Amino acid sequence: MSSNISSLTLFRSLYQPQQAFAELARAEPSSLRIFLSYSLWLLLLPPVFSLIGAANFGWRLGADQPLFMTTNTLLIISAGYFVALLFGLFSTAIISRWMAKTYGASVSLGRHMALITMVGQPLAIASAAHLFPDVLVNVLVLIPATIWGMYLLYSGIPVALETPPERGMLMASALMAWLLVAVVSLLGISMSLWVLGVGPLLGV
Amino acid sequence: MQAVENKIYQDKIVIRLIQFSVIWAVIAISVGVYIAAELVWPTIDFGQFWLSYGRLRPVHTNGVIFGFGVSALMATGFYSVQRTSHVTLFAPRLAWFVCYAWQLIVLLGALSLLAGWNTTKEYAELEWPFDIAIAIVWICFGVVFFGTIAKRKIKPIYISNWFYGALIIVIAMLHVVNSLALPVSIDKSYSAYAGAQDAVVQWWYGHNAVGFLLTGGFLGMVYYFLPKIAGRAIWSYRLSVVAFWAFVYAYIWAGPHHLHYNAIPEWVQSLGVVMSVILLAPSWATLVNGVMTVSTAWEKLRTDPALKFIVLSLAFYGLATFEGPMMAIRSVNVVSHFTDWTIGHVHSGALGWNAMITYGTFYFLVPRLAGRELHSTRLANLHFWLAFAGTMLYIIAMWAAGVSQGLLWLSIDSIGELSFDFKDIMASMTPYYLLRLIAGLVFLLGTVLMAYNLFMTLKGQRAVKVTPPAVDPAYGVNA
């Protein structure tokens, strides 16, 4: 059993998921190595795209005029976005490993880190839509990416974490609950920050 | 012969209530889809008052909550209270009266809403003649349910019955207090409360209707049917009892979070926030209990499509019960209130939680009641993915629309004036409303497939005759 797995193999999960999951199942990678060589770079994409898009085109939320913010505000928003994604990745990987004990899956943190990154990869790449921060464009691009990510989650757990498909389905659904809560938390935290004065100027 | 009949569980009534529930689901969701289309193409009311959004919207909500939801709760309540008490239903004729009278109320109530009778109280729109009829039928429902528990042969009252019991008692209390009014004609009454007090009473009712009917009642369904479908005892019975009392205690205070920044005392609003946040604990205690119960029953997934619905319903239950307390916090509510995010939140609960748990329960129950296999497991699996996709698309569309609305409505420029025009903002929402319409159609298609599947399963079958089993003396009423 090889202990490591190349970033290229992990990237391949985008278009050849079953082979990539099978290779991951044969590896015991170090979580730090996975993070530094693979996850970190994907996590950087959305905040960077968001920064470039918002600075050039403004947030286009449906009104006739886009919403422009100062460079400082945009930097703070992107930094916050990165921290939130970082927290999301680590917390999901740790929760996934914690759940693995219940569902008889592998408890190798490196594998969980790799799998969660693979699941999030379509969304990270689709975040190129942030380059033109029109909400509708982003929704239309991110919905198929989300569907692909969910397919990777449901089909990846049994293979990569070596558990029967039915147990994998239960674990994927339990993780889905956590991810839904995480996404809605991101919305709630964003709104609280806007109200506190971080972000767009609101009359509250 | 009569003596033998008296010892057979009253399951015909359960089947009839399930049939009504499914019919209401199809009708009420269709109405929902139609009003979703009206928000995209406003002229499709064709100038008819009865087809207008204002009249159809309460038909949708009343049809879903009272037609689909309550019929399902009555069906599952009657089914489970007999099994957990080891006796047949108390006063079966009264139970049949409850079954048909309730359908008549929902049907005539819907017609009255189309005719424009409306108290303007959300989820309590029906006028006073219906309110009186609802109170009478509801009390009869309580008599049948508690009568069955009173004649039970098992000493402990199983946890699902506590939730169904709380549903019956609290909804009766909420309905009677909130509906107190002075009638001035057959179709018009004035609330007994004035101004802000009326609003507080209305949301004490409104939020607890969500709490004790759409959450508590359906938790009763979870606590009976989840262990049954999984073939396992509930993971922690003690946790379920603690969760029940914490749930009942915390929920009743949470209503004022619907009235933030309104003309009600600030301490009342704050109390609503605190109790809403506390509510997360008992809600998630049940979530943990459900997830852990089902986690050991994974082999069942190979053969039973019902379990998939239940597993997913727990995920959406987790989302909705987290999202609700979060949206109750003032700094989130100030942006989210009045936006489509609220509509998305309600539907993550109604579609993802209430409908999914009910669909799963029906897929489990109907083959057993009919004494034959489900007509098509393939169709049920297809329904699962349609329901999942429809719910997700609905939520995502409403999140995007809601956050955009909240942000744009409140945006101010450097001199403190509102940056954007309200009607321009709303005009730009059409694409999201179109996505929501597609989501609704997908969800409706799944529901129609289920209706066909259950109809074919029941076709030509009579209810299987089941008699109560012998009682273990250790649990008998005289133990």
Automatic annotation (TrEMBL), chain A:
Pfam families linked: Yip1 (PF04893)
A GO-annotated cellular component: membrane
Transmembrane segments: 35-59, 79-100, 112-129, 135-154, 175-196
Keyword Transmembrane helix belongs to the record: yes
Subcellular location as annotated: Membrane
Keyword field: Membrane, Transmembrane, Transmembrane helix
Protein name as annotated: Yip1 domain-containing protein
Source organism phylogeny: unclassified sequences, metagenomes, ecological metagenomes
From TrEMBL, chain B:
Coarse class of the protein's main subcellular location: membrane
Transmembrane segments: 21-44, 64-82, 94-116, 128-150, 162-184, 204-225, 237-255, 267-288, 309-330, 350-370, 382-412, 432-455
Membrane topology value: Multi-pass membrane protein
This protein's GO CC annotations: plasma membrane
Keyword Metal-binding: yes
GO biological process: aerobic respiration; electron transport coupled proton transport; respiratory electron transport chain
Gene Ontology molecular functions: cytochrome-c oxidase activity; heme binding; metal ion binding
Keywords from the named record: Cell membrane, Copper, Electron transport, Heme, Iron, Membrane, Metal-binding, Translocase, Transmembrane, Transmembrane helix, Transport
Cofactors named for this entry: Cu(2+); heme b
Gene3D superfamilies listed in its UniProt record: Cytochrome c oxidase-like, subunit I domain (1.20.210.10)
Pfam families given in the database record: COX1
Subcellular location: Cell membrane
Matches recorded under PANTHER family: CYTOCHROME C OXIDASE SUBUNIT 1, CYTOCHROME C OXIDASE SUBUNIT 1 HOMOLOG, BACTEROID
Record's protein name: Cytochrome oxidase subunit I profile domain-containing protein
Naturally occurring in which organism (per UniProt): marine sediment metagenome
